[in-house]
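Running this now, will post back.
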Amino acid sequence: MSERKVGWGILGAAAIARKRLLPAIAASNNGRLVAMASRSRERAQEMLAPYPGVEVCDSYEALLGRSDVDAIYNPLPNNLHREWTLRAFEAGKHVLCEKPLAVNSRDAEEMAAAAAASGKHLMEAFMYRFHPAMREFVESLRDPMHVHATFGFTVKEADDIRLQAPLGGGSLLDVGCYTVSVSRWILGEPVSVQAVARMEHGVDMTVSALLEFPRDATASVWASFESPEAQELEVITREQVHRRERPFTSYRDPHDPYQLMVESFADSVLHNRPVAIPLSESIANMRVLDRIAEAIRS
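Update: finished.
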């Protein structure tokens, strides 16, 4: 008898689903693509052309109502992460939610409480944490003094959802979440936060923050929607300077981190094991993002 596989449903026809999650799930050894829900049937059908047999649902509710869907991937705009994750739990589904988990730590805490109450798994899709080379890089560090993490690029379309404040847009939530996450992964929890940002139409286009940690360690984090492609991680230890280029989006090094992520999550679903990125970690990251946003406002 073949081993059971997790049936996946995709909420929305997001670009990240096309580029990374659909092929990752299709290639996984413990998951299978079942359906995608989209406001545009034509867009969904075009995205699903390489995956015969995967069905298109005309509404998110219809997708959640399917008995053959065990887990949901939620790549909706940031302001919809909470609502549709909670609805998925009500429908008895597990949820892999795109980063950031929520727009603030209060929503993240509510989502975690709902996951616990429903008995379903919830994990934030920080795929970079599954990079074999990235894990080796972090685990090799000894006595780090300073972390410098950058993630910037140019958002070219004026109607991009990342530039819309009501949808939870802004560089801090979109890519700053990575720079804060890796700084905390290496140094722990910050004791103080300072930050500045260049704002445009209520959206933080570029954010720069200084985080202070115990033992006088520090991190400088920088995120931008108006720069050339800029992505680097530099860690200064007592002995040397460690650098890693493209720390957050390396696709294969040597394996596909998206596939490793969905296989890990599916394993948690199939065997009722704790998820690899616990919700306590995601909530802690959101709390630091909240502190940076507050420092910008003040």
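The longest helix spans residues 279-297. More later if anyone needs it.
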